[in-house]
Amino acid sequence: xxxxxxxxxxxxxxxxxxxxxxxxxxxxxxxxxxxxxxxxxxxxxxxxxxxxxxxxxxxxxxxxxxxxxxxxxxxxxxxxxxxxxxxxxxxxxxxxxxxxxxxxxxxxxxxxxxxxxxxxxxxxxxxxxxxxxxxxxxxxxxxxxxxxxxxxxxxxxxxxxxxxxxxxxxxxxxxxxxxxxxxxxxxxxxxxxxxxxxxxxxxxxxxxxxxxxxxxxxxxxxxxxxxxxxxxxxxxxxxxxxxxxxxxxxxxxxxxxxxxxxxxxxxxxxxxxxxxxxxxxxxxxxxxxxxxxxxxxxxxxxxxxxxxxxxxxxxxxxxxxxxxxxxxxxxxxxxxxxxxxxxxxxxxxxxxxxxxxxxxxxxxxxxxxxxxxxxxxxxxxxxxxxxxxxxxxxxxxxxxxxxxxxxxxxxxxxxxxxxxxxxxxxxxxxxxxxxxxxxxxxxxxxxxxxxxxxxxxxxxxxxxxxxxxxxxxxxxxxxxxxxxxxxxxxxxxxxxxxxxxxxxxxxxxxxxxxxxxxxxxxxxxxxxxxxxxxxxxxxxxxxxxxxxxxxxxxxxxxxxxxxxxxxxxxxxxxxxxxxxxxxxxxxxxxxxxxxxxxxxxxxxxxxxxxxxxxxxxxxxxxxxxxxxxxxxxxxxxxxxxxxxxxxxxxxxxxxxxxxxxxxxxxxxxxxxxxxxxxxxxxxxxxxxxxxxxxxxxxxxxxxxxxxxxxxxxxxxxxxxxxxxxxxxxxxxxxxxxxxxxxx
Length: 743
Description:
Blueprint: E1 9-15, H1 20-31, E2 36-42, E3 47-52, H2 56-65, E4 69-72, H3 79-112, H4 122-155, H5 161-181, H6 195-219, H7 221-228, E5 233-238, E6 241-246, E7 255-258, E8 267-272, E9 275-278, H8 280-283, E10 289-291, E11 296-297, E12 302-303, E13 308-314, H9 320-333, H10 337-367, H11 372-386, H12 389-395, H13 397-409, E14 412-414, H14 417-422, E15 428-432, H15 433-437, E16 443-449, H16 455-466, H17 472-483, E17 492-497, E18 501-506, E19 509-514, H18 516-521, H19 530-538, E20 542-548, E21 551-559, H20 566-575, E22 579-583, H21 588-598, E23 602-604, H22 609-621, E24 626-630, H23 636-641, E25 644-648, H24 653-658, E26 661-663, H25 670-703, H26 708-711, H27 717-736
Parallel strand pairs: 15-22, 15-24, 22-23, 24-25, 25-26
Antiparallel strand pairs: 1-3, 1-4, 2-3, 5-6, 5-7, 7-13, 8-11, 8-13, 9-10, 9-12, 14-26, 16-21, 17-18, 18-19, 19-20, 20-21
Helix pairs in contact: 1-10, 3-4, 3-6, 4-5, 4-6, 5-6, 5-11, 6-27, 7-13, 9-13, 10-11, 10-12, 11-25, 11-27, 12-25, 12-27, 13-25, 16-17, 25-27
């Protein structure tokens, strides 16, 4: 592979796509480039994601050969610049609509007032050719982009929506010119010009496209907000001086200064100072996070109070913010199965409409009333103008874009578009215990003194023994000592007893701290404490026992408490009709206690990491559609096996990479929100598809004159143009409703 070639993934901006038919053309062109393994073209934001190993210039050339323009999208786009470009396009389209609409309105008013001269009169012979020239100028100004698109499609052997509009309006203008030139030779009923129809159709098309551009911009607001979080400059400390440099010039390991109210430029670790940081845009968590020395900070988050120094650990595309933006875009460009169906229909839609227009012309010309040529022309032109492949092409990607963006704003990162379709169908959810249902951080929940020792003395002796240990239970004891302002004392003759506990001496006393087996080995009688120990174990707590000079001195009970919202989340899942199981490697007593507290009825305990995926397969074999929620390396196989894998974002990178959905703030309550969002999104897509199919199924036969034999109704081509423009706008507007839906 040459240096110019890239591997993995590349994003291209595609210019010139006018309808869903263009998507299949661009995808075919890119798939034909050697080295390309996967292509996904998004009509909603006019982009393409290409995976494989190939030269970007080859990709751009392939797109150009297909009749479109392409450019590589690199780094962070400027949201303000993007919005300015969209606003400029919106204004241009409105201006084109105004010019065409003004010309069409003037012609219609003159006709309604009967002020237009007869084509056969002396005045008509000079007036109507001038109208033809003026309307041609309007068509060129207001429709140049459409005619260029149609020409490119023709040269590449394709047909798209531009083709339909260009043929329809071009035929209207050309037919009108033929009527002027051969006025005396035509039947009287065929002597009608359609100049006003041609320009008014373009007015409606441009107006609809302009409004659609503005509405489509709103669907991208979430991704723009994420991009807008990235500051353009950073304050680095070099040779003792603080310098403001472009974000691209920050190197790994450099020290950066952040002042109150400023955005953090890159990911890093705080090395001096302390502060609170607003991480709500990344995690959805409204409460500021306290940061002290050793705490990690993320690019795009906002420093609220103190000034601090931090060391850069991840820069550029490796920052958490960049990865989130990448994942959101990846999901927006991925296609659920329902979208692939729409693409297949759209690929043949335009050729089918052109064929139907020709068929309509022939039927009316051969069997229609006089003037059959006039009727044939009007009906075939109306068929071309009213058909709307755009609505079909937008139905799915526009809803996916809105949903993925909405999810990102609430701390849910959807990595695969298929997850949006599948999550709403889940019938069974498997939850890991540690870090998913529970907080994943053991803490001291009770201290009991015995044999004359107070609770404070028990905690002091226990923390003194655990002061040098890195065991999670030791960390819980030391944290409790700090919270109770208890100062550990120095111990002598320290000895760790693997799998049991520790022992040491203090002031000539021999102190032992550990599990029940250790104290029984020391010959300490625990019969009188049997009920208490059994109760603690049944409650899911781990009792650690203290003895001084072979006398029982107290109990320090440690537990991994469930998250505050776990029970409510489980209840909401059950209300959704979902079967909830907890699968853990922990012992059955602790597992059942945690499950009981969280409201989970089914528990699988002492399940080995490699067997968690087997549990998922077993449930799938029973006909369940299974979701798996986990946060550790041992959950990765099960996350990959599940129909939808949901990773708690506070967990390991391996688990996150194996998941379809990442819950950034670690709240289990986000799981039912994902399911609800999936249900809303699929319903929205179905509404869009139904509307698009219904519109085309009803409007095209009506445009072809199907109602004329029964009711004498023929559709005006200008009304057809307005209807076509509104159909796409309706789909985009319906998708935007998802932004306000409550999860």
